[in-house]
Amino acid sequence: MICDAIRDRRLLSVVYGDAVEPQTFAPYVLYCEPGKRIVVGGCEIARRRTTWRGFEVASLRGVAASDRRFALTGPFDARSRYRREDIIAAVDLES
After folding, report:
1. CA–CA separation, 65 vs 83, rounded Å?
2. Phi and psi at residue 8, to the nearest 5°
């Protein structure tokens, strides 16, 4: 579901850790960190601010894809942030 949302640029509703309310999240990249943790990185959209966040997938208590699409907030190059072999999916890479 997360890879599909990245490919289609669809917003996610996520509940992470101890959070009570779901957060709207624009997923840009899914990658593997050292120690084999899988992380989804992107922009958390809250009221009038947009903040870059990373969520460990194993700690997500709820994920739902939205029909709403998102546009990138600026240039994004997954390979400049992460090693290519660690990237599972990214908005700027072919599936």
Report:
1. 27
2. -90, -5
> What is d(CA 59, CA 53) in angstroms, rounded to the nearest whole number?
14
Write down the domain spans for the chain: 2-90
> Rounded to whole angstroms, what are the CA distances from 11 to 1, 25, 41, 61, 68?
11, 6, 12, 17, 6
| Strands of the chain, DSSP E | 10-16, 23-32, 38-46, 49-56, 60-69, 87-90
How far apart are alpha carbons 81 and 18 in whole angstroms? Answer: 28
Q: What tokens does 42 get?
A: 């992107």
Q: Give the pLDDT of the chain (95 residues) as one tens digit per residue.
A: 999 999 999 999 999 988 888 999 999 999 999 888 999 999 988 777 788 989 999 999 999 999 999 998 788 999 998 999 999 999 998 65
Model's pTM, two decimal places? 0.89
